[in-house]
Amino acid sequence: MLNRIIILMIAMTSLNINAETVLELGEYPPNYLGRDVNGNDVTLEDNKGKIVVISFWASWCSPCLKELPILEGIQNKVGDDKVKVVAINFKENSKQYRRIKNKLSTLKLTLTHDKRGAIGKKFGVKGIPNLFIVGKDGKLLFHKIGYGASSINKIVKVLNEELAS
C-alpha cells in the first residue's frame, strides 16, 4: 500500500514538472521583470502600491509597436507614481533589441529584455502582444493577448477602476 502511495505521489509530481504556467486573475504574478536599460533589476516588489502594466512585445510585431506609445501615453497622463509600464522585449537577440531600444528611446517606458523567454515562460506567454495589469496590491487584475482598438478601452476601464479603489 505504501509503495502505491509513493508511486502515485511521484507520478503527480512529474506531471507538474511539465505543466504549463497559467496565471489566473487574483494570483500574484512572478516578481522579476528583467533589467532596465541601465542594468537595474525591475521587480513588482519595487513598484508596490502602483498599478503595473506589463507588455511582452517584439520589434517585428506591428500591433506591439502601436500599443507601446499608447501605454506610454496612459502612464504619462496618470503619472508614473501611480501607473508604471514595463515593456518586456520577448525572445529577440541582443542586436535586434539594442536597435529597437534606440528607436524607442524617446518613450518614457521601462524597457527590459527577455532574450530566451524565461520571464515570459513564468507568465505563460506564448504569443505577443501579451499584456498583464497588476493591481496596487500586487495581484493580477487583467490579461489580454493581442491588440486592437477595443483593447485600449478595456485597459482604461481596468485602470480607472483600480485607481478609484
UniProtKB/TrEMBL annotation:
GO terms for molecular function: oxidoreductase activity. Keywords: Signal. Residues 1-19 form the signal peptide. Residues 23-164 form the Thioredoxin domain. It comes from the Bacteria. It holds the Pfam family Redoxin. InterPro entries: Redoxin, Thioredoxin-like_sf, Thioredoxin_domain, Thioredoxin_ResA/DsbE_sf. PANTHER family: THIOL:DISULFIDE INTERCHANGE PROTEIN DSBE (PTHR42852), THIOREDOXIN-LIKE PROTEIN HI_1115 (PTHR42852:SF17). This is Putative thiol:disulfide interchange protein. It comes from Colwellia psychrerythraea (strain 34H / ATCC BAA-681).
